[in-house]
Amino acid sequence: MFIDKDVSLLRYPNNIAIDNEVVLKKGANICACNSDAKIAIGNRTTIGFYTFIYASTNISIGNDCLIAPFVYIVDSDHSIEKSVRINQQKNKTAPIVINDDVWISTGAKILKGVTIGRGAVIAAGAIVTSDVPEYTIYGGIPAKKISERK
After folding, report:
1. pTM for this structure?
2. Is 146 helix (H, G, I), strand (E, B) or coil?
3. pLDDT in tens, 113-148
4. Which residues are 60's β-sheet partners?
């Protein structure tokens, strides 16, 4: 495993499982945000410069993945009910699963409840709010299918 300088394993680092030959590049922040949150990063996966991975429930990243710089992966968001002050509302959470052989390009955002299929590619700047099938290429805001790996 290679861990560059300024990498942070935050809050509950014992809930973060990192397999063999993983590369964590400078400025990466990986946070198990509470005592029940789990993060798993598979063999030979690279986490790019200044990428943020924040789990309130569970984030699983498979083997042989490339996570580019400035990617944001978060399995929760805030409620927005009008009758409750915004800072008093509970988080909504749902696990994220990123299967093997996935490339997530620079600046992409993967949001709660998403499963990304084996071999998929996420284009730069995409915001992924729904599941991505195997070997497809998704891009845009919100992300949608733009091609397939051949």
Report:
1. 0.96
2. strand
3. 999 999 999 999 999 999 999 999 999 999 999 999
4. 40, 97
Specify the DSSP class assigned to residue 134. Answer: T
Give the pLDDT confidence score for residue 30 in this predicted structure: 98
**Rounded Cα distance, 41 and 138, in Å:** 22
Q: Which positions are catalytic?
A: 78
Q: Which residues contact 75 (CB under 8 A, 6 or more apart)?
A: 54, 55, 56, 57, 58, 59, 93, 94, 95, 96, 112, 113
DSSP state of 87: G
Amino acid present at 15: N
For residues 114 and 104, what is the distance between their CA atoms, to the nearest angstrom? 13
